[in-house]
Amino acid sequence: DQTVCTPLPVLGRDVLVPLVTGGEVTYAALDYAASAPALQRVWDDVAAYAPYYGSVHRGAGYLSQLSTDLFENSRATVAEFLGCRDDDQVVFTRSTTDSLNLLAAALPADCQVFVFETEHHASLLPWRDARVNFLNAPRTPAQAVETLERALAARDPYGPALVCVTGASNVTGELWPVKELAAAAHAHGARIVLDAAQLAPHHPLDIAELDVDWVAFSGHKLYAPFGSGVLAGRADWLRSAEPYLAGGGASRKVARRADGGVDVEWHTTAARHEAGSPNVIGVYAIASACKALTEAGFDSLVEREQRLVTKVREGLAEVDAVRVLSLFGDDAPRVGVISFVVDGWNSSHFAAALSAEYGIGVRDGLFCAHPLVRTLLGSAPQDPGECGAPEAEPGERSLNAIRVSFGAGTPDEHVERFVGAVK
Ligand code: PMP
């Protein structure tokens, strides 16, 4: 039954792919953690708007006004979706990576940054000019809070500090104790940014309730694949930072000086960091996805997804050769993201076989979280290439892993096919 099976219809459910064994099969997209399929609703909304596309904040013409309205209403929708506080800003970016780089560029002078080594590279790497403290991988959520507490207690208490943490791991799917980490950060006068790239598509998110200072996420993982992302949160650091990009849209007033130079007055709103013509379609798509997820009700989405998580976990547990990767232990709560290795198999070959023989799309590699995956695999650093890993020799320990991930619109059949194929 379509309505029971797919409470939120997504695109690409009927794509036929050829099998090496002959014939064809409908594609099972089980790589939501990389990019989720678009919601049908997002596609419909974008298609309805596209003929009326116009420039944003740039004209008196009807289409320009319409586009500006859509763009600014989308900002309000995202603010509502995230439960933003009155004085929060919602800045539209290209992606989570872009959002965190924007925040990194807006850090006050001498800001110390605290980040677990287990983070995705998008959260681990943007803080290049800051004083970064890399925290060791915790093995329980409580240990994560203790580790952070200890690091913050030892910090220079007078300078600004920022903690960056992921809400749900893109490797293990495990949920991090965001609220407790936020409380620890604030108790030590630090701020906290939440990388919600994997949390936002799978879990209700409330910036005020979690008491985090900023949230970053990507449209393409939230069923809205048109090249946009979000950084939402406290206005003060953003308002006093240099514009992320210099150009039109970010500047309020520009004038030649008598000495021949140029004086610029920058906006103090989100526009300060949105120079250039913005991606109105991408932004509208995110707002459309936010509305669709809210209307569908996260409770039923989470409940359904957890049923699929259990199905995968139980299925994999029946295969002796499979080892599921976990930082916080087998019973830790997780979203629909599960990584594993299979004894005797090279993970890349395994993923290729799932695709070629069963029409199942999963991810293999180190998932842009090299330190975390190496910790979980117990392997030494190697030259991994682009987000990947070299091949293990037959009989060697795996140097990379396989990841299966799913969410809204995933039919039971895809997950059942996957478990059957692994078996
Ligand atoms: N953080 C996490 C936890 C992620 O899973 C990803 C994407 N894999 C990112 C950040 C980066 O997202 P994007 O590539 O959309 O910038």
TrEMBL record:
The keyword Nucleotide-binding does not apply. The keyword GTP-binding does not apply. Residues 30-418 form the Aminotransferase class V domain. This is Aminotransferase. Coiled coil: none annotated. GO terms for molecular function: transaminase activity. Keywords: Aminotransferase, Pyridoxal phosphate, Transferase. It comes from Streptomyces chryseus. SUPFAM superfamilies: PLP-dependent transferases. Its cofactor is pyridoxal 5'-phosphate. It comes from the Bacteria. PANTHER family: CYSTEINE DESULFURASE, CYSTEINE DESULFURASE 1, CHLOROPLASTIC.
